[in-house]
């Protein structure tokens, strides 16, 4: 039962089918398996070895494995082993802090940002947004413009916004005027044909059709009139 030793720093004694631990009389407080209470919580990190101490300010001491340091072995000996500086940057550390020394054309915590960003000169015109990939840039243009740097104005008449009319571009950027047909119809803005059915003039569930300056109603079986307003149901049936 006592092999291997189950009693930490103590002595294991077998009694019948059981065992008991006899702990050292060295002033430390042990639990039943002769593990000091100072180290019972396993305070040493990264597989460090805990050694109990008598002082109230330092109840234990950690012996760290190679590559770690700190009171509880919580720090790597070289903080730069935890970071990768990009774009030929070099890592330096001061105490627990580390930082990247970047080359001339880069900046940022890991030297990830290019200083000479091709978008820094704002090459995209007319409100375009610039994005870069290395030494190249790309412009995302607004709806009114196109081209590598959004320098070319889109044709405001394509597609034709004037319906049955003719679109004429104006000198002012992205503006136009509409010339509507001379056919007697009073057109709305952008030569839109007015919808005379919008006010629902056909009564009694008649169906309205808008045609130019006029509208017509298709009436149900028992109604007639311009607006299907007249009930023509046979009032003598049934015979009153």
TrEMBL record:
Gene3D superfamilies attached to this UniProt entry: Laminin
Coiled coil: none
Keywords: Disulfide bond, EGF-like domain, Glycoprotein, Repeat, Signal
One term of GO molecular function: calcium ion binding
Classification via Pfam families: EGF, hEGF
PANTHER family according to UniProt: CRUMBS FAMILY MEMBER, DROSOPHILA CRUMBS HOMOLOG
Name recorded for this polypeptide: EGF-like domain-containing protein
Organism field: Parasteatoda tepidariorum
């Amino acid at each position: 039962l006592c092999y291997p030793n189950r009693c930490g720093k103590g002595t294991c004694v077998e009694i019948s089918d059981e065992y008991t631990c006899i702990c050292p009389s060295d002033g430390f407080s042990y639990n039943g398996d002769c593990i000091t209470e100072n180290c019972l919580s396993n305070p040493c990190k990264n597989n460090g070895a805990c050694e109990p101490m008598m002082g109230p300010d330092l109840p234990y001491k950690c012996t760290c494995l190679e590559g770690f340091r700190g009171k509880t072995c919580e720090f790597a000996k070289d903080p730069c082993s935890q970071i990768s500086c990009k774009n030929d940057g070099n890592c330096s550390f001061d105490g627990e802090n580390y930082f990247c020394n970047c080359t001339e054309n880069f900046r940022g915590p890991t030297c990830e940002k290019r200083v000479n960003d091709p978008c820094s000169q704002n090459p995209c015109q007319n409100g375009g947004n610039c994005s870069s990939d290395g030494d190249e840039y790309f412009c995302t243009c607004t709806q009114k413009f196109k081209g590598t740097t959004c320098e070319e104005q889109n044709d405001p008449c394509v597609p034709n916004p004037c319906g049955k009319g003719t679109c004429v571009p104006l000198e002012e950027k992205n503006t136009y005027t509409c010339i509507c047909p001379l056919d007697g119809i009073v057109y709305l803005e952008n030569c839109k044909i007015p919808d005379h059915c919008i006010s629902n003039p056909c009564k009694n569930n008649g169906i309205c059709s808008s045609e130019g300056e006029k509208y017509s109603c298709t009436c149900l079986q028992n109604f007639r009139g311009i607006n299907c307003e007249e009930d023509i149901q046979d009032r003598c049936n049934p015979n009153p």
